[in-house]
Specification:
By secondary structure, the protein is α/β, with parallel strands linked by helices. It contains 29 helices and 29 strands. Helix 27 packs antiparallel against helix 29. The longest helix is centred in the last third of the chain and has 29 residues.
């Protein structure tokens, strides 16, 4: 290696500088593109497509960094890796963003019309897709952009139509009038899992409905009195003796005056409340089912925006919550409402807009889920199952599938896959097909679009060219190998991909699904705009670099667990990267004109050489095993310990002896070992920290265009040396013990001391004599004796290690009188601290009134002071004896 090449590594680790142009080098070199090489086994990941609604957050960074780590390692292991990128149109979310932007301009989508509005959304999509790609670049994600997909591109839209039409023809998609979850803000239907239930302080309103032509009343209670305007019955249990005589009679509905029947239905719980319930079939899912059983009228009393409609009589035009207030007031005045009970209860909110969800009677499109769920469950039991990591999430998934409800798939939006159904303008005949009817002028297409998750559920195979079963990517790369996603969308997305894949390809969509948790702030709170505790990953990269962020995200949690974000931990990973940089720079500065061809590990090696090669072998095995198991934290721990503790703190320090020495063969061997170990270490670290490892690897003696396609390290049996490990362990124990003793008596390493080592046998003597150079370099003895029978001085500091005992004569270490005086002064200090804290703790007033945390803190201080006092006493006794 030339002197010019040696100096290209700057003296300071600057992540912004080394990360600046590296990504373009990788993309231009097409290192991330799947080759289709038949000699290589394919390995495939599809990215969970981010929504084109804004910036990527820390959760995206965590999720994609895991995928990148897996795919980079597999590429180095010789697989033909496809990591397919793409984005999701995100129907409600994206349309809401664009409509909000239009509102700022004083416009709405109706001013533009459907076609121009959709053009505006497509412009938004292009703008934010570019923004997301720029963030992918900052993170260093090894994506195959030649295969990038979008959920509304032509190929995926064709797949969506194919699935819809096929399911419809099989009777698994149907259209019907049902109670659905309605979002009055976005004015669209929601599926069950798009409803977030929150505890709310509400009220329970107790009312008396009068029985017609009678002095009797029947008591009912409700949390939503505004819906009483749509009551069409009161239900009681058929076995309830209190009400048997009333079944079939009618009550007069207060405020409205309409007569409604008292019906008997076993759904009613006799033990709950009065045992009688109001039935509002158009505004409650359970009432809807009761209404079907008793052929009750469905009276809808609200508009889609949550305001009251013409069926609400005098309350028409009021917002639903304003209507509630007015009805409560009117009922109180009439004496119908006799009690208002405060009660905390679960209220559904729209996951998208946050609005209180309204159970609402509507004509929608649904998927009949039971047959699809049964197939997916059977796949887990008898087929090639999806492996959940951690496996406990399989139970979560199966529980949901076993309790499945039909899926409402229509959304009252313009942005999305428009439902491929047409209605004849004259006959109202329904036509469902992949293409429009032959005489389109007589037909009108359904205005609704499909739920975003309908297209996302096809992502693993629609992106590969399906429904063309001969598409090259579909034949080669499906099923995919692993999906990485959070536990919060197992139901939204993972479950739907599994049952759609089983239905349409008869295969699992992926072999493994790696589940991770959520990123929380340092206090464990979920990151949110309202709390103002969110962290932009680009800000972290700007300050510490992508490698530091990546390594923190990867190693900070175990599969399935949440991750707490700490700035100081990111800084700690920067320090680790800086350590790697400085160690590599030092090594390169001492390789002179060393080339890849000069690496020769066949000659005589020192103990340090044999040991570091053995530890390299062991680290390769551990990192490979744990990364393959997705245990990134454990793999990172092995990498960190090997690089920081063993390579940097021990081997490189020991390597300075031959590097600075006069023995040319020892020097060349050390250079070979350094070059080889650093090369292999950079390869192991590369999936975790791609930028710094590429930069260093390019400076090292190497073969190949990029570390991204360099072979993954393999442990070499010829380098495994148990004897060297044991000898090095003993040597390190001696050096550490000497350093500890020096620190204890405040003797700096620069001061020479007498060292006696009493070995248990001649073999140990021989071993230590062979490594005398290390002992002399790192212990700095004025005199070193190694024997099975040393003359132990009366006054000496000692330490016991495996196979030997160390003695350091005190006379050479300290001034006795001076040290005794110092220790007496220190003993006095700790004695006073003990007395002070014990006096405080014996004060009953303090112990009873102070917060427990303060009391516990004082008790901890007492323990600490007593330990320090005891240590100083023991040391004084040693010196005085």
């Amino acid at each position: 290696m030339s002197d010019e090449a040696k100096t290209t590594m700057s003296s300071k680790y600057n992540p912004q500088e080394i990360e600046k142009d590296r990504y373009r080098f990788w993309v231009d070199g097409k290192f991330f593109e799947a080759t289709g090489d038949e000699d290589k086994e394919p390995f495939t990941i599809v990215i969970p497509p981010p929504n084109v609604t804004g910036k990527l957050h820390l959760g995206h960074a965590w999720d994609t960094t895991m995928q990148d780590t897996i795919s980079r390692m597999k590429r180095m292991q010789g697989y033909d890796v496809l990591w397919l990128p793409g984005m999701d149109h995100a129907g409600i979310a994206t349309q809401s963003k664009v409509e909000a932007k239009l509102k700022e301009q004083g416009k709405n989508r109706y001013d533009l019309g459907r076609e121009k509005f959709l053009d505006t959304v497509w412009d938004w999509k292009e703008e934010y897709a570019d923004f997301i790609r720029a963030q992918w670049e900052k993170l260093g994600l090894g994506l195959d952009y030649s295969r990038e997909r979008f959920t509304m591109d032509d190929g995926l839209s064709n797949a969506v139509r194919e699935v819809f039409v096929t399911l419809y023809k099989k009777g698994l998609i149907y259209r019907g009038e049902y109670i659905i979850n309605w979002d009055p803000n976005t004015q669209t239907a929601l599926s069950d899992i798009e409803v977030i239930y929150e505890e709310v302080q509400g009220k329970f309103y107790h009312m008396r409905y009068p029985i017609k032509d009678s002095d009797e009343i029947i008591e009912i209670a409700t949390t939503r009195p505004e819906t009483m305007l749509g009551d069409t019955a009161v239900a009681v249990h058929p076995s309830d003796d209190r009400y048997k005589h009333l079944i079939g009679k009618t009550v007069v509905l207060p405020l409205v005056g309409r007569e409604i029947e008292i019906v008997a239905d076993e759904y009613v719980d006799m033990e709950l409340g009065s045992g009688a319930v109001k039935i509002t079939p158009a505004h409650d899912p359970n009432d809807f089912e009761i209404g079907n059983r008793h052929d009750l009228e469905r009276v809808l009393v609200m508009h889609e925006d949550g305001s009251m409609n013409e069926n609400a009589g005098n309350y028409e035009g009021l917002d639903r919550f304003e209507c509630r207030k007015q009805i409560v007031k009117d009922l109180q005045e009439q004496g119908v409402l006799f009690n208002i009970e405060e009660r905390v209860h679960q209220v559904g909110h729209s996951e998208r807009s946050g609005a209180v969800v309204e159970p609402y009677l509507s004509t929608q499109w649904f998927v009949n889920m039971q047959p699809l769920a049964d197939e997916a469950i059977e796949l887990q039991q008898r087929g090639k199952k999806v492996n959940f990591v951690p496996d406990r999430f399989e139970r979560t998934y199966l529980h949901w599938m076993e309790n499945i409800r039909d899926w409402c798939i229509s959304r009252q939006l313009w942005w999305g896959h428009r439902i491929p159904a047409w209605y004849h303008k004259e006959t109202n005949e329904l036509y469902v097909g992949k293409e429009a009817p032959e005489d389109p002028e007589n037909w009108e297409q359904d205005n609704d679009v499909l739920d975003t998750w309908f297209s996302s559920a096809l992502w693993p195979f629609s992106t590969m060219g399906w429904p063309d079963l001969n598409a090259e990517d579909f034949k080669r790369h499906f099923p995919t190998d692993v999906l990485v996603t959070g536990y919060d969308i197992i139901f939204f997305w993972v479950a739907r991909m599994i049952f759609q894949s089983k239905e349409f390809t008869d295969q699992r969509p992926f072999k493994d699904v790696l589940i991770h948790g959520l990123i929380r702030d340092a206090d464990g709170r979920k990151m949110s705009k309202s709390l103002g505790n969110g962290v932009d990953p680009m800000d972290v990269i700007e300050q510490y670099g992508a490698d530091s962020l990546r390594y923190f995200l990867l190693t900070g949690s175990t599969p399935g667990q949440d991750l707490r974000f700490h700035w100081e931990k990111v800084e700690a990973t920067w320090n680790f990267a800086n350590k790697v940089w400085n160690a590599s720079r030092f090594s390169l500065m001492n390789m002179e004109d060393f080339t890849y061809e000069d690496i020769d590990l066949s000659g005589e090696k020192s103990l340090a050489d044999k040991w570091i090669l053995t530890r390299l072998n062991e680290t390769i095995e551990q990192v490979t095993k744990n990364t393959n198991k997705y245990e990134f934290g454990e793999a990172g721990r092995h990498l960190y310990n090997f690089i920081w503790d063993e390579l940097c703190d021990w081997y490189i320090e020991m390597a300075k002896l031959p590097l600075y020495g006069d023995n040319e063969s020892e020097k060349r061997m050390t250079q070979s070992v350094l070059a080889y170990v650093l090369d292999q270490t950079m390869r192991m670290l590369h999936p975790y920290m791609p930028f710094i490892t590429e930069e260093i690897w390019q400076q090292l003696p190497h073969q190949g265009a990029s570390i991204t396609v360099a072979p993954w390290p393999e442990a070499k049996p010829e380098f495994h040396n148990e004897t060297a490990s044991k000898e090095m362990k003993r040597l390190v124990s001696i050096i550490k013990s000497i350093r500890n003793i020096r620190a204890e008596v405040d003797t700096p390493m620069s001061k020479q001391i007498k060292l006696l080592i009493q070995a248990e046998d001649e073999a140990t003597v021989s071993e230590l004599e062979n490594n005398r150079n290390y002992l002399e370099r790192f212990c700095n003895p004025s005199e070193l004796t190694i024997s099975t029978n040393v003359d132990v001085p009366e006054k000496a500091m000692s330490a016991v290690i495996t196979g030997a005992e160390l003695f350091l004569p005190l006379a050479g270490l300290i001034d006795f009188d001076k040290e005794i005086k110092r220790l007496e002064k220190e003993l006095d200090k700790w004695t006073k601290e003990v007395q002070r804290v014990q006096k405080k703790l014996s004060n009953e007033g303090f112990v009873s009134k102070a917060p427990q945390t303060v009391v516990d803190e004082e008790k901890q201080k007492e323990q600490d002071y007593l330990e320090k006092q005891a240590k100083v006493k023991a040391r004084l006794n040693e010196l005085n004896s």
